[in-house]
Amino acid sequence: MSRAVDGLKRKNHRKKILKQAKGYWGRRHSNYKTAKDAVTKALFYAYRDRRDRKGDFRRLWIIRINAACRAEDISYSRFIAGMVKAGISINRKALAFLAVNDIPAFKAVVSQAKAALGA
After folding, report:
1. Distance between CA 49 and CA 64 in Å, rounded?
2. What pTM did the predictor assign?
3. Residue 73 region by backbone torsions, left for phi larger than 0, else alpha for psi between -120 and 50, else beta
């Protein structure tokens, strides 16, 4: 039996890959062989970076909280330690939101953390 070169399944598979490569630069969007490699790599990056995004956002929140804490003359690590001692459990996402958008509320949390450290 001869090998199918232009069968429907094969054509559809190639069309699917080329459709995914739409918008790629140069030969990568029109040549099946290069498009296949580009799409495979892109899908791998997408999968990996969906997991990395969580850490990236946590890093961003910590940077924002630290910057706001430094304005209040306390380091990030001392602030978190003070929050633990004070029994305040606000996640970093919410703290970063407060630090950027509601400064008086963040200052109140910092003052409670400082008081817990001083006691």
Report:
1. 22
2. 0.77
3. left
